[in-house]
């Protein structure tokens, strides 16, 4: 199957909307929103590229921001549309992160690229998506880009779930560095910090934050889900205290790169 077929099959059967509403999923969502809100100003225009079912777009629109959303998968667009509430200033159109020609240069105060980098499997495509996101952002505007982490995947799937023994994973793993390689059938492209730094090297931007949005949470899902409200608040406080620490951020499953366009 090609990339679109693989993604359509996956997201047609996977409840992405509920993933971010579980207690453990809320850690990623609340952390991402924490950094988004840090740079939002009244009247800001936002574009979300790869908006999925609209968890972020709807939340921001409900807070009074004007949001334009782009999503590739029709199933997700259908859910996004059903979730739209009266009064939300939000639009949704089908499209790809690789071609935002429908949008003019320097239109948006904030650009969210919170899903597409998961599913782009060549450096050329990855740089094209970043270039388009930066192009539609105003000078001085902020871009938030999410990535999936290589090494958390090695620990959880190759070792904890035993997938290192499967032939298809042997072929995808460098036995010396444990760098994983992905194809559309594996669905998720995986990155290390140096990969992201290399991708960003040619762009005229300044990094503001490099964040682990879930840190150890995915490893202890059941523990987090079982926490009462008071303990969960303490867990969030701890998580926010460590999520940018260079000695800690490598444990995360998802990273958020936040930068400004010069």
Question: Strand content of the residues, in percent?
Answer: 15-25%
Low-confidence spans? none
Q: Kindly state the mean pLDDT as a whole number?
A: 93
Cα shape: globular
Helicity range: 40-55%
| Radius of gyration, taken over Cα atoms and rounded to an integer in Å | 18 Å
Pattern of helices and strands: HHHEHEHEEHEHHEHEHHE
Oligomer category: single chain
Q: Helical region count?
A: 11
Distance between the ends: 40 Å
Judged by helices, strands and strand pairing, the structural class is alpha/beta
Primary descriptors:
262 residues, alpha/beta, single chain, eight-stranded mixed sheet, 11 helices
Structure, explained:
40% of the residues lie in helices and 20% in strands. It has helices at residues 3-11, 16-19, 23-39, 55-62, 74-83, 123-135, 150-160, 167-172, 193-200, 221-225, 229-242; strands spanning 45-49, 66-71, 90-94, 108-113, 137-149, 190-191, 205-212, 254-261. Strands 1, 2, 3, 4, 5, 6, 7 and 8 form an 8-stranded mixed sheet that branches. The radius of gyration is 18 Å and the shape is globular. The N and C termini lie far apart (40 Å).
Q: What's the helix and strand layout?
A:
Blueprint: H1 3-11, H2 16-19, H3 23-39, E1 45-49, H4 55-62, E2 66-71, H5 74-83, E3 90-94, E4 108-113, H6 123-135, E5 137-149, H7 150-160, H8 167-172, E6 190-191, H9 193-200, E7 205-212, H10 221-225, H11 229-242, E8 254-261
Parallel strand pairs: 1-2, 1-4, 2-3, 4-5, 5-6
Antiparallel strand pairs: 5-8, 7-8
Short description:
With 262 residues, the chain is an alpha/beta fold. The protein has helices spanning 3-11, 16-19, 23-39, 55-62, 74-83, 123-135, 150-160, 167-172, 193-200, 221-225, 229-242; strands at 45-49, 66-71, 90-94, 108-113, 137-149, 190-191, 205-212, 254-261.
